[in-house]
Design a protein that fits this description.
By secondary structure, the protein is of the alpha+beta class. The protein has helices spanning about 20-30, 70-80, 120-125, 130-140, 145-150, 160-175, 205-225, 250-255, 260-265, 270-285, 295-320, 325-340, 340-345, 355-365, 370-390, 395-410, and strands at about 5-10, 15-20, 35, 45-50, 60-65, 85-90, 95-100, 105-110, 180-185, 200-205, 230-235, 285-290.
Length: about 425
């Protein structure tokens, strides 16, 4: 098995080994002396040891992993009710979002997501042009803030800047609530921290109520727009002028080449707003979603691999109860009579598995714009038929146990 690209190994003699250049670079940026804080098994916490500094270091008030889309909302709700003060940082992959919270109110928010920066917010409001933004970004240096430069150049007034900063904070907060996987940490604010460009006062209770609605809406949208890597493709060309004005920017960029994430970045919109627009366009029949061509082969291989894993499990159980010969024969005959060979090919392995290369050749010959959904349905139908074929050979309790395992694996078999 290949070693993870980013791995910290603590050896029996107490020495530490680091693999992966990216991880080494990240740790190198935090070079210094640390003390070990006691914690539960499986979690290692280090605190930097200062040398003669008079500045009180930040203290960790709470930290943990984000395991679902409700985790961040529950954490912020608890912070709000306890009227805590501090900086809540939400980590999701390479993305960082920081929320400055003070006794039940959100005071500021920052993000590493390009579409959630002030310049992109102003672009989405059409308050400035891309040329104006580019000019001002070149003038940024030291502690000069973008908003101040935009006002000095006469591109925006103070009221526009104030409104945009409010919108930026709300956008970042909503995006943080929608994070479903990652980690979080709540710390005290460092004494030498650079103050935000502007402090707002947004009650967390109101933001959370709006956030709950967003989460519920996103759950609905995600049923029809499951991934941001999908490419919207227009079905009715030349009819953009008939669309709602709010949907036209997305429709104009939906060319089958850009995926949803790229469209969001180009417009400077957040994830929620873009997915909502795509959902409405799909529901109206203007767009359909397709897997990018470059990802279709990779996705097909993944589906076949997951299917084969499931089939090997079914076959192993059936073989123990005497059906090792009949099950492959029954399944192969059914594939031929049902027409599923169009999607998966003619070959069936000894353990009822498929050959990925043959499946890819079969998909290439299909006359459809949606080969992957067709393959997914075929694989699920085959697994279901395999379970039906297995039933006569299995004791009832074994059949029920195997059925639960297979149902769970089929739930994970998705595009």
């Amino acid at each position: 098995m290949d070693e993870p690209k980013q791995l910290i190994q603590i050896k029996a003699d107490g020495t530490v080994a680091v693999s992966g250049q990216q991880l080494k670079k990240r740790l190198g940026a935090r070079a210094g002396r640390y003390t070990l804080i006691d914690g539960p098994a499986g979690l290692l916490v280090l605190r930097r040891k200062g040398r003669g500094t008079k500045i009180t270091p930040t203290r960790v008030l709470m930290a943990g992993e984000i395991t679902s889309r409700s985790t961040v909302m529950e954490i912020i709700s608890m912070i709000s009710q306890a009227a805590w003060c501090g900086e809540l940082t939400i980590y999701s992959g390479e993305v960082r979002r920081r929320l400055l919270i003070d006794q039940g109110a959100l005071r500021s928010a920052t993000s590493t997501v390009p579409g959630e920066r002030l310049g992109q917010i102003l672009l989405s409001q059409k308050a400035i042009t891309r040329k104006q933004l580019s000019e001002c970004l070149k003038l940024q240096s030291g502690r000069r803030r973008l908003g101040e430069i935009l006002m000095e150049e006469g591109f925006i007034d103070r009221e526009t800047l104030f409104d945009s900063l409010y919108r930026q904070v709300e956008t970042i907060f909503t995006a943080a609530l929608l994070v479903g996987e990652g980690s979080f940490i709540l710390t005290t604010v460092a004494e030498d921290a650079i103050p935000p460009a502007m402090k707002v006062h947004l009650p967390l209770t109101k933001l959370l109520m709006e956030g709950v609605q967003r989460i519920d809406e996103m759950a609905v949208y995600r049923k029809h727009v499951p991934r941001s890597s999908l490419c919207p493709v227009p079905l009715r060309r030349g009819s953009e002028e008939q669309l709602d004005e709010a949907l036209q920017p997305v429709a104009g960029l939906a060319d089958g080449q850009r995926n949803i994430k790229q469209i969001s970045a180009e417009l400077g919109w957040g994830e929620f707003k873009t997915i909502k627009a795509v959902y409405q366009l799909v529901q109206s029949g203007y767009l359909e979603l397709r897997t990018p061509r470059r990802n279709q082969v990779e996705t097909a291989r993944r589906l076949v691999s997951e299917f084969n894993r499931t089939m090997r499990g079914i076959y192993a159980v059936v073989a123990k109860h005497g059906g090792n010969k009949e099950m492959p024969e029954n399944l192969k005959a059914w594939i031929g009579s049902s027409g599923l060979s169009r999607y998966v090919g003619e070959h069936l392995g000894k353990q009822c598995t498929l050959d990925a290369e043959e499946v890819l050749r079969a998909l290439a010959e299909l006359e459809t714009t949606k080969p992957l959904p067709a393959l997914l349905k075929a694989l699920r139908d085959m697994a279901s038929f395999a379970m039906v074929s297995a039933t006569p050979y299995l004791p009832r309790e074994v059949e029920e146990m195997l059925s639960r395992v297979v149902d769970k694996r089929l739930d994970n078999l998705r595009l």
